[in-house]
């Protein structure tokens, strides 16, 4: 069994390099549940990648590549439920990974009552964390001061999501995900609004609707630092169990460069 430190090192390598899919094994990959989609498509979490489990249950989201120059880590055949990952650079076994199957509600026939594919409303991160960007725009992107690492609007441009989600849509996807055991908690994020509440009001309206339907579902929200801290209390009162602050980086010089809009 792999130990935690080793899985941490190997997970970092996979995150940075991704995994190469051997063209000779494409049919094998498909039979084992890997949908062939290469590279990152923008956005966060599982967009353009697949989740795998190490033997110690540590989880990693890996980009998949069809170009061997992209990664020295090659996905070989599935044996006893685990794919062997071979390191061609060091000519040795790198790790053994179990594929996390995509949820059934990703299939195109699963749509909300207003006709939106459920996959465009929320995605599963890892095993059972349902996640969604409730508003796929950001004021800083619009004025040319977006965070350098952020791809929040690319998912929208690629047609992988919709601009804004509501509590009814979210509740329907939660229901579908729970039936599969894929939603034990939920993370919500959003682009920043130009209003003083930074987008808190959007959250509050959605949180109240979701909590009405799922009062025991733990909800985590992420928002830019607020000058008016009363909005933090309002988010809590609306149903947020935990609140993450999108500070991004502590060093002010780096903030000026990497997060120009948020650095002021």
How are the SSEs ordered, and which strands pair?
Layout: H1 4-17, E1 19-21, H2 26-31, E2 49-53, E3 59-65, E4 73-79, E5 82-87, E6 92-99, E7 123-125, E8 129-133, H3 139-142, H4 154-157, H5 167-179, E9 185-189, H6 200-213, E10 219-223, H7 230-238, E11 242-245, H8 252-258
Parallel strand pairs: 1-3, 1-4, 8-9, 9-10, 10-11
Antiparallel strand pairs: 2-3, 2-6, 4-5, 5-6, 7-8
Helix pairs in contact: 5-6, 6-7
Order of helices and strands: HEHEEEEEEEHHHEHEHEH
Q: How many beta-strand elements?
A: 11
- Sequence stretches where pLDDT stays below 50 over 5 or more residues: none
Total number of domains: 2
CATH topology category name of the largest domain: TIM Barrel
Separate helix tally = 8
Quick one: overall form?
Answer: globular
Taking the sheet with the most strands, its summary is:
6 strands, mixed, barrel
